[in-house]
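Side project, low priority. Logging it here so it doesn't get lost.
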Amino acid sequence: MAFESGVLSWAWLPDWASPVLERLEWKTDVLPLADGSEQRIDLRLGARRSYEFSVGVDGVARRYLEAALWDAGAKVWALPLWHDTRHLAAPLPIGSGAVAVDTAHAEFTAGTSAVLLGEDPRRSESVMVDDVTPTHVLLAGVTTMAWPAGTRIIPTRPARLEGSHKATRFTGDANRPARFRFEFMDPWDGTPEDALPTHRGAPVLELRPEWGRGLSLDLARELEQLDALVGKWATTDRTGLPVASQAMGWTFPDRASLSAYRRLLALQRGRLRALWVPTWTRDLELLASVSTASTTMTVAWAGYALHLKGEPGRRDIRVELRSGAVAYARITDAVEVSTEAEQLTLAAPLGLNATPAQVAAISFMALCRQNADAAEISHWTGEASLASATYRSFRNDV
């Protein structure tokens, strides 16, 4: 077992048959108002971070793990971030002051630690990171062991194991894979995304969800009921608007796409900050061509003028062309021009030239915030990860 400033390095490899689960949790006080609007207050400096994974061991590794847990289960560990594992392409000699690895989108950071790990948990070495380049981790000292090609180097963070951990015996000298959950000692801030497109001063969520992950829309009313339980009752729709909750999920096939999602999480800070969230469905169908100067759109009849005109959550649209070009617009008026068509008036020129055949989708957008302060990322390999979120609308004057 390696030590770094009195901190023990966790050296037992995860069982990737089940995902490594990372959880980030902010704390937001949401104060709802009677009209459906809300005030949100950030109560935590950064997100609390936890990490959960399975370990299945037998023989010497099992005995070593149980001895370490008996002795140091309540202490702080240097916990490897398994999803950021890198492998040495060439042997690393003893006395090396730099490790040649691709550091892109991994949490190798100056002033933190990393660990070199072999297959045997008894063979590990903690190192301090002095600096990081795109191709090297520069060490504050030198390595005290020689490491072969293929050795793992993993960034670590101080974390404490939860108070209870259960080992289920498989044989007299083997355990079934057991889940271990750690709480990181330091908050996670991340780097907020600063390159999202905007509409009416707020960023737009352009991270397209996967239809196979169960995209759904739930409309709920905030109803108040007066009922004496002996006769008729009265019900009042308190805000006059539904609360739209839209669930979606994503698969991130590589580290770059996951890093972009982390930046999005850092921007939102749980329930704190709002984004424009498209429905990602074909809510309106264009009937007549539009130009960059168009301030009206003729669409197939959809009951918009009858039911949705001026309604928050249904007055802003995302227009996507098959070419990939996207424009956002605010609808200010709508009239039925026939039983088959409606004409929408826009607050500003659309900025796109398009025929009906060139339009992939016209989707409604609602200003939403996340429905929960916690975000979970399931790491299935060192590259591929899954995540999901539910976004909730609210009355706004944007």
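Brief comment: The longest helix spans residues 59-72.
Revisit when time allows.
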